[in-house]
Amino acid sequence: MNIPLPYFRILLTNFKLLKLVNNSDDVRLQFSDSMIVLPFYLQNPCFKFSFYLLLLGSFVACNSNQNVQSTQASTLDTWLATPTNKKTPFSKQAFAFQSIDSGKLESFRTQLYTDRAISLKTTLKTAWEAKAFQYGSFKMPIQYRIFGTQPYGKRSLFLSMHGGGATSAAINDQQWYNQIKLYQPKEGLYLAPRAPTNSWNLWHQAHIDPLFDQIIEAAVLFAGVDQNRVYLTGYSAGGDGTFQLGARMSDRFAAAAMMAGHPNETKAKAMRNLPFALYMGANDAAYDRNKKAWAWKKDLKELQLDDPKGYQHQVQIVANKGHWMDRVDTSGIVWMQQFERNTRVQKIVWLQDDVHQEQSYWLRIPLHLAQTGQKIVATCVDNQINIESNYSDSLYVFLDEKMINLKQKVTLLVQNKLVFDQKVVATPYNMYYNLQRRFDKDMAYPICLLLVDHKKVVLNPRFNDLN
Prior knowledge:
Elements: H1 5-13, E1 19-22, E2 26-31, E3 34-39, H2 45-81, H3 105-130, E4 132-135, E5 138-147, E6 155-161, H4 169-182, E7 188-193, H5 208-223, E8 225-235, H6 237-248, E9 255-259, E10 276-281, H7 289-306, E11 313-318, H8 330-336, E12 347-351, E13 359-360, E14 363-364, E15 375-381, E16 384-389, E17 394-399, E18 410-414, E19 417-422, H9 428-437, E20 447-452, E21 456-459
Helix pairs in contact: 1-2, 2-3, 3-5, 3-9
């Protein structure tokens, strides 16, 4: 006998509608427009009495679970309403570690995201209004233009990096002014930052990543940008930056368009989940840029043939053009806009850059374990995670209700060897933790599996680097 819990509620709340329909083989419980068929032996009065007790117990259990969820939501409301200077750490709240039903996850996520937004607005307001962002001793001024009339929260963001490099500040300033006027998308916030340094690798350096994160967050908060419609582009040295940042920060962007740049050590394999356009003048021979472009065209084509769900790309080697392509490259801006970011990709190919990253989509490692040039490859399909390649002794796998079915078991394999096979639970703490680390609603994952030493899994661990 297997009777779904919702039927128990109906039976007891509609008890007057219930009647027994007897025949020689079974007993049927009929109410409203539904019927449950029970084994014939429940015709015995003693069995019927036991059955009603079972119904009552199930009803109590259902409502007990409802009460836990209701209390949990009420307690979160209380915590969120508490003034910041009087709040106790989130990790000290009992409700933070209680399971959330899948139907309530989005509500909890929205509340925690809104709370984080309030905090960040205070932090970023001055920088946005001054059009200048700061990270340590590095300052990044910005200029932007707004195109189209997209509703608030639906606007695209284009981060457009200027050329120049190892030259005078005045020349790099002029390159920045040129970049502000270079492209005009049909809609969106077109934003050109000024690199903090005047070096050959002005867009490669480690301070660029946190500065870009600040700009994206501020554009979401103050300009109504859709975080799933953020695009990256750059010309010449800015194209160098598009190669570099597109690879190591791919989970921030919907697509990237590289114009007249050089990849340096960046590999095409790192672009698995980032739609990537490459524009190069066929005669742009300085530093072998044109030869590198031809090599990337070949690599991207082969990678996509081997992995058809990844490596979306467009490569245009413009005939009879040198470093300046006479605006043929503007079609790359249009090409990008067909894409939206997907944070729940089924496969991750994570190549660690020399500027180390702790996270790529739904995978994270402790930053001190990152190794330049090393690779992690993982898939998540039909409630099964397979870690195909991994160099880190600690690997966090984050999941949410759109990636897996919470009613079924989740299996985790390491190189096809089973190391975990059980149901998982979603908690507010995981969402809170992820939002504190990165202000990104689509990456506020409520479930965490920690793979330790490639063979042991800890479900929903507590994190030592956050209260």
